[in-house]
Amino acid sequence: MAPLLEEALLNDPDYIAERDSHQTLLALATAGAQVRQALTLSNEAGIERVAGGERPRSVLVASLGGSAVVADVLELLAEPGSPVPVSVRRNLPLPGWVGPLDLVVAVSLSGRASGPLAVAAEAARRGASILTVGAADSPLAEVCARARGVHIDVGHGRTSSRTALWSLLTPVILAAGELGLIEAGESVLSDAADRLDMHAEACRPRSESFVNPAKILAMQLAETIPVVMGDGPLNGVAAGRAASMLARTARIPATWGELPDAASQIVACFDGPLTAGGGRGVGLRQPAPDIFADPFLDGPAQPRLGLLLLRDAPPATLTQERADAESLTDAVLQTAHDAGVRVSTLMAEPGHPLVRLAGQIAQTDFAATYLAIGLGLDPAVSPHVADLRDRTRG
Length: 394
What we know:
By secondary structure, the protein is of the alpha/beta class. It has helices spanning 13-19, 24-29, 31-44, 68-78, 114-125, 139-146, 165-178, 186-202, 213-221, 233-248, 263-268, 295-298, 320-338, 353-374, 383-392; strands at 59-62, 86-88, 103-108, 129-134, 150-153, 224-230, 255-258, 304-311, 342-347. The chain is 44% helix and 12% strand. A 5-stranded parallel sheet has the order 2-1-3-4-5, sandwiched between helices. The chain has a 4-stranded parallel sheet with strand order 7-6-8-9, with helices on both faces. β1, α4 and β2 (86-88) form a beta-alpha-beta unit. The two termini are 38 Å apart.
């Protein structure tokens, strides 16, 4: 049966405060402030000293879990024009080519995540330049100090990598800008902070559900098994983050894909048992819902496949490549509608790629959190995750 979300609960400040025991919504609302604080902490730590101020031969980024998107964002921004390759590694082994000419970036909020810590230690042993981002008094900071690298503190009050994304991401973006790997410096990060503030205001808890974009999206996703689709590389990163937040925060299993590569994979799901055709093919629409159905007496409806489409802002100049991408996106959307899939769309607002990405991430982060709260879950507390940690603690 599909989970039942009561809209009235999302408009009850007392209920929200009771369910949100770790103030996840407040932490997400500090994203813009995280950017500004991280800029200050980065400059105080001497981020201009990264790699001796010289462009490295390559950059390798190690981040995982809630901070995994840090590596994805840097790879996204660097891909179009970086003069050196940027790669991602979640854990050992460190590639054999990494050496003194390369820069290794390791990110962990606690500074204790085994993957980034092991990668940083091995990179230091090989004489590579090191940039680490995490807690000040941590094993990661110690590894960086011994290697004479640059460590950026994440500041106080950051308790979850899911809600401290911009404390982790900002120093990495700033360092890459300083080294000429991407076109993003303090001014772009300042614009991203403003965009994050704008969405925090629009998605605040006391904003009513009929005008709050995150609450609206949460209600749309509540009775679906969502597939998150990005219409290109930028929204592909946002889609991966959204699927992760839906699973980890709202406890809703979600898959994701990026066009054009994932088009067939996504559309194939429309033939399955969770759409109107019920596995009998596209084109059979869902019958009109029974307006007299009572979810309390009859039980919630069977869950349906949902498509959350993340679309980029319209370009100033429409290239043939972008026109082809738009055509493919429209075709997927039409197929979804024909199959009776519930479609929700988030359109990015214009700006630098990092600024556009910030807006998409902010909206889906808030939506996943409201979805958890509306379903009666604490977005920061998972008994099964706690149990898993107890079972695997050495």
